[in-house]
Amino acid sequence: MRSFVLLRGLERVAGVLLNLLDRFEEILIATLMAAATLLIFVAVVHRYGTGVPFLYPYLHPIHLSWAQELCIYMFVWMAKFPFAGRSSCSACSAARCSPPSSAPWARNS
Asked: What is the DSSP code string of 60-81?
């Protein structure tokens, strides 16, 4: 009986930790999206601003050539994070655990 109570307590702790990790993942992805959007916006405004003659002397010394590369890395990390942990959708979890019924090797002979 004691081990059952201990397991129930561990399940609750694990559930709370998983919820915290899910929330952290959502915040991290939202932050990366906002930062990437802002960075690309600044780079585009900078690119077009250097074409304006009176802004050219001020904007030309600022180099934002790294902005596109950083955004690529940010988008890769945004795409990776949802697959690093568990899926919160039970249908997705079930689909991962069992092969599709149309697969020839999954049929019973």
From this structure: TT---THHHHHHHHHHHHHHHH
**CA 76/CA 80 separation, integer angstroms:** 6
Cβ contacts of 87 within 8 Å, gap of 6 or more? 93, 96
Supply the range of the domain harboring residue 45.
2-83
* pTM of model > 0.90: no
Structural domain count of the chain: 1
The full DSSP string for 36-58 is HHHHHHHHHHHHHHTTSTTTHHH
pLDDT in tens, 80-104: 877 765 555 544 554 555 555 555 5
